[in-house]
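debug: dumping io for the single-chain case to check the tokenizer round-trip. Nothing else runs in this session.
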Amino acid sequence: MLSIGLHKKYHHSHSNIKLFMINDVNSDYVVSDINSNTKREYMSYMNIFLKTSSLIGLQSVLMPFSDVTAAAYASDDIIKDDNIMNTMIQYNGESKSLKQYLGDKCTLIVNVASQCALTPQYDGLVSLYNDYHDQGFNIIAFPCNQFGSQEPSPVEKIRKDMSRQFNVQFPIMDKIDVNGPNTHPLYNQLKSYKDIGVSNIVKISWNFEKFLVNSNGIPIRRYKPGFEPESIKDDIDVYLKTGILNARKKTTLNDY
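debug: decoded output
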């Protein structure tokens, strides 16, 4: 019986993956020589491919291929490549791993500024934190002065001001860059994820861009600055209860 598998050499250009037909599936093949974004895109293509095959009567033919796909997706190298929770971040100059700040279920990571038109979003962030922190949710804020120089103060003053003005209880980390040559390693990783809801993946566009990450620190949804915290409450609520996300809401004028 003809089976469909993966050619041992993948040709990867501009995030396109070419698949080849061979006679037999190599059961011990593990996808380890391509980057994690490509692996996720590969998995997306394969899920569509396998679902389509069931509609045209090829499901039994493709079952071995499905097994290889599942094995590749579950392999340790994918988990290791995607897991960013060991990235070091700083508070008062002390470095700790991201995992020490992550919520048990999910966390919102936000680049913030205290002199921005969007600074009132702190109200919504505090509301999310108060509503969901005891359910395994956390927020990690990173002050950044790269957008209109709207975060010029020392971080100690930023923390005091935000605590006084908005009663912020979640951690405001040391100031970082989120774009350019001095981009913090965490943001280099966050921005590398291509399949979480924002088309412009090269740069953070402004203050208060948000990443929802799971308990392992892996980004699962990205929100542009115009998304008010209240507008993503449903995503957080559903994820905390079910471990899955709702379908992405239709893009609005706020998605800038």
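debug: round-trip ok. The two ends are 51 Å apart (CA to CA).
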